[in-house]
């Protein structure tokens, strides 16, 4: 009887529902997740960690709590960051894989931002390299933390769409938005979101920040031939849920709404040889565990002029970048967690090791 039960369980294991759902999602580039997992160039420890994430058995705080190894599922890194010496971690975000992969975990923020930048740098490089020869696409932005106003001074687009006019229009939209707003729009959205989205809760006034502050778009690209100004944004987000992409896209669209409208208004008022410019917002969403929606990415790449024969290899590269980035973030998490307990091994040095991508956590 026991054997029968075991055989039954083996055939229909109740716990596989999430992993199976994740792996069987269509159109999410799972073929490249498979090629990464089967690649001899990828270290076994990296593969193991990715499999743990997929099978919901990565040993983060929530899992340890479930196994009875921890009193609370609350995030120990957050607790430590707040410098509180409490036994319970109640009131702290749950230490899920999604949480430690988000900038909402303050201790992980540097590593998470690094992961985002690494994937975006790859994508921009791939787009530039594989663009149609006839395309005259100029990317402005780069790695540095500069406001969008400063970007405008680096390109001729400022002669066509003057920044002062864009800023005036944005101020006007923001003022009327403020007047019409009874309650912050984001409120109900945030309540639906769980800890994988806590990163966004920091943003008190994202519209304003996009245009005048630190939250500028990841890049701006100017197509001088077709007269299109692209506002480009890359979002690396937890793909535990099936609708991760739609959610990421709609959030980015909302966040860039005022900027895009301001640009459209100014572009619409320009006459003569500088007239006829169009504004397009393109949002790229990559799942932390390597999900990339093939059709959406292909459409974005097509829009930006990437030759058709190269689109699959660009997508493969992005999936692999995402998986490698996820692993670096997981190693940073381990390093910080071990750093607390390790004897004679300073926290600083272990974190730096992880940033260098060392596989010291076998
Ligand atoms: Zn945390």
Distance N to C terminus: 38 Å
Number of domains: 2
Instruction: Enumerate how many helices there are, as a single number.
Output: 18
Average pLDDT metric: 82
General shape? globular
Write structural notes for this entry.
The protein is of the alpha+beta class. It has 2 domains: 13-110 and 324-355, no CATH class; 111-318, no CATH class. Helix content is 53%, strand content 8%. It is built from 18 helices and 4 strands. It has helices at 2-11, 17-24, 30-37, 44-54, 61-66, 76-81, 97-100, 109-129, 148-152, 157-160, 163-180, 186-192, 206-212, 244-255, 257-269, 294-303, 308-341, 347-355, and strands at 137-140, 219-223, 228-237, 278-287. Strands 1-2-3-4 form a 4-stranded mixed beta sheet, sandwiched between helices. β2 (219-223) and β3 (228-237) form a beta hairpin. The longest helix is centred in the last third of the chain and has 34 residues, at 308-341. It is globular and about 70 Å long. Bound molecules: zinc ion. Residues 75, 77-78, 93, 99, 105 line the site of zinc ion (ZN).
């Amino acid at each position: 009887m026991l054997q029968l039960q075991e055989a039954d369980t083996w055939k229909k294991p109740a716990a596989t529902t999430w992993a199976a759902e994740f792996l069987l999602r269509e159109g999410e580039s799972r073929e490249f997740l498979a090629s990464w997992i089967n690649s001899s160039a990828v270290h076994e420890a990296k593969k193991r960690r990715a499999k743990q994430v997929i099978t919901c058995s990565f040993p983060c705080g929530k899992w340890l709590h479930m196994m009875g190894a921890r009193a609370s599922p609350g995030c120990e890194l957050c607790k430590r960051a707040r410098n509180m010496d409490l036994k319970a971690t109640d009131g702290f975000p749950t230490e899920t894989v999604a949480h430690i992969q988000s900038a909402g975990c303050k201790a992980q923020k540097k590593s998470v931002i690094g992961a985002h930048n690494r994937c975006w740098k790859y994508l921009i490089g791939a787009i530039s390299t594989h663009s149609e020869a006839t395309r005259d696409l100029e990317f402005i932005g780069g790695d540095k933390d500069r406001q969008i106003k400063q970007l405008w001074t680096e390109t001729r687009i400022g002669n066509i769409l003057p920044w002062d006019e864009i800023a005036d229009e944005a101020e006007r939209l923001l003022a009327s938005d403020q007047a019409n707003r009874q309650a912050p729009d984001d409120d109900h959205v945030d309540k639906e979101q769980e800890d994988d989205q806590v990163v966004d809760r920091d943003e008190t006034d994202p519209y304003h920040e996009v245009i005048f502050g630190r939250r500028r778009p990841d890049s701006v690209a100017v197509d001088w031939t077709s007269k299109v100004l692209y506002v480009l944004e890359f979002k690396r987000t937890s793909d535990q849920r099936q609708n991760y992409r739609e959610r990421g896209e709609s959030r980015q669209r909302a966040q860039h709404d005022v900027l895009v409208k301001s640009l459209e208004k100014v572009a619409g008022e320009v006459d003569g040889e500088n007239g006829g410019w169009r504004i397009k917002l393109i949002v790229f969403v990559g799942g932390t565990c390597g999900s990339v929606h093939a059709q959406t990415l292909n459409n974005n790449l097509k829009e930006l002029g990437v030759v058709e024969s190269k689109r699959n290899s660009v997508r493969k590269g992005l999936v692999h970048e995402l998986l490698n980035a996820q692993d670096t973030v997981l190693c940073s998490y381990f390093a910080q967690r071990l750093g607390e307990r390790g004897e004679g091994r300073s926290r600083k040095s272990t974190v730096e090791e992880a940033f260098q991508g060392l596989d010291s956590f076998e």
